[in-house]
Structure formats: C-alpha cells, structure tokens
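so my prof wants the structure for this chain in the tokens format not the other one, which i didnt know existed until like an hour ago. anyway here's the sequence
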Amino acid sequence: MIGAAPAGQHTVRRHNLALVLGAVAAAGRSTRARVAEATGLTRATVSVLADQLLAAGLLDELDPDRGTPGRPGNPLRLNPGGPGGLGVEVNVDYLAACVVGLDGTVRAQQVLGFDVRAAAPRAALRRAARLAEKARAEAGVPVAGTVLALPGLVDLTGVLCRAPNLPSWDGIALAEMLGALLGTDVEAGNEANLAALAEAAATGLRDFVYVSGEVGVGGGVVRNGRLYTGVAGFAGELGHIVVDPDGPPCSCGGSGCLEQLAGLSALFRAAGVDDVDELVARAREPRSRAALETAGRALGIALAATVNLLDVRDVVLGGVQARLARWLTGPLSAELERRIVSRELAPVRVHVSELGSYAAVRGAAGSVVSRVVADPLSVY
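here's what i got, hopefully its the right format
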C-alpha cells in the first residue's frame, strides 16, 4: 500500500489557486482564456478561481483592450494594492526596511546609517523596528509577512548562529526579538541569500552565484530558480573560502579568507582610503589600483572554485562589488579563465547587478510575495 494519501478537495483548490495566480504573475497580465491555456485548467474552473482571487484582493481586473478584434476578455493582473512583503535588514553599518507590493514594485524603503557593531542587539532592533513601521505606513498596503536579513549564518528558526563581523550577536534569536517588537511573526535569512533571490526575480537568471559585500563578502547560490541553502541553511559563505593559506587571519578563525583580501575593510586598508567614494575617486592611483587588482584576483579564485564545484554558467556581482565592477572584473575574469576546468566547453558570464546596495532587504520583502503567489490560501 502506498503511504501517501490522495489529495483532498482543499489541497486541490490550494494547488489550482496557485496555478492561476502564478500564471498571471508570469505573464504580467492575462485573460481567463489565456490562463486556461497556460495551466491546462478548464475556462470554467479558471473563472471560478479568478473570482476567488479577485475577492481576496490578490488579483485586479482591468477593462478589456478595445483595440483587439473580436470580444476581448478582461485582463487580470496582480493587485498593486494587494498584500505585500516587509523586509528588514541589519547589516554591519546600516539598517534598512522595505515593503514590496504583490506586483513586485518597491512601495517604500527606509535606510539608516548605523554602527551596529557598537550597539546591543535589542537597541539595534528597536531602531530597525521603527524603520519597519515607517516603511509599512508609507507603503499603504497590507503586509502578508516579515523577513529579516542578517549578515551571518542564520538557522531555520531565525537564530543568528555566527556572524564573524558581529561576534557579540552570535546565538541570539533575532527573528523572535524583532517579532516581539513588531507584534508579528518574523522569519530570518542570510543577507546574501536574500539578495540573490532579488537578483533572480529582477533578471530571470535561474542558475548563478551571487556575490556581494560590505565589511564581509557574502554569496548566494541559485539553482533552477531556487535558492540553495544547504541542509541547515548555511550554504553560500563565499567570504570564508580560503584564497591564500598564508594570508592574514580572519575573524572566522581561519587565515587568508576571501573577505580578508576583497572585503571593504581590507580594500580600504590596502588602498589607504576611508570609504567607497574615496576609493572610486582614487581608483586610478597606483596604491588603489593595486588593492583593487588584488581583490579582483581573490574574487576570481574563490568564484572559480565555486563554479568548478557547482557547474553554473553565471556570476553576478552585487552590492559594493557592483559599484567597483569596472576595476574588479578584469582580474576576476582572468582568474576564471585560468582556473575553471570547463571554460572551453561552457564559458562563464560575469554580470553586474543593477539593484544597488540594498538588494538584500528587497529580497527579504520579495520572498514574502513569492510565498503568497505560491500559496494564495496563506493570506486568506
């Protein structure tokens, strides 16, 4: 006897609602007839399900296009005023909050420069909660969920297990703490992983390695359009790949890790500058140019190892790495060309993200929206 039970009526309805909402989301806008063609459901079934999604505020119905021949149907689209997602980010030197609408648009974003290393976790989260409340009020849409982006290893319960650049925060249940401040359930994830999700949504790339960083260097792996998190949620720690065993000691306990050669603190020390603006302004000077060359080579070594292991075809530079891409890409690409074993059979493409430094908080909010589209009944 097969152990799995047959799908009940509720399960079938949940699945079909997700099919219809997903088809509209994929198309941008679509009529009931086109949704039926895309999903294989009958037009009558699609009509019933679409009406339920309209009543729930997840779909919006537009006037028919009078410029088409025949009797055009009323286009459906995701409701811009429907339930969105709230993302909150705690990084080493800033806090951010963002609301993404059900249609994928950023409805509100708040950012505060803040030295998180000098603050107690609860004090920093109080600031983050105030930003979140401002963003939620500005957005003017209901929020279906909240996700917190954190710079370190985050387990499946929302505990920040290890943050090399925030060592006093290790082992704290930050999702639970922020949830108490906001009066709602909060989930948490690694900031680079969530930024990778934002990149996947923005570009349509389905298999890639995403790299970005501020003080540290984070990475996210997307396979077949889904984030790969590993068994415990800790995959993607690109910044702690050893690129020089004889290199400087790292806060993780190792030596010669990528972030010690390509992280911002390392770059600033090597270039003799205080911030990214100064580094960009002095990028042509010998000392800064040498620092950027070193960082690019280190990134290339770490990314080549990752590509050799995972067999992906795309690398995306995000965050500060995107801003510095014009100087990093040359030495990085040279290392990829030299070290990737499949380079002649399947060349790797290097992309520069256009999402800016706050991709992680957008990805956190967007992950809520993706969950709503995948399971519309979760917000009924």
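also thought this was worth mentioning. The two ends are 35 Å apart (CA to CA).
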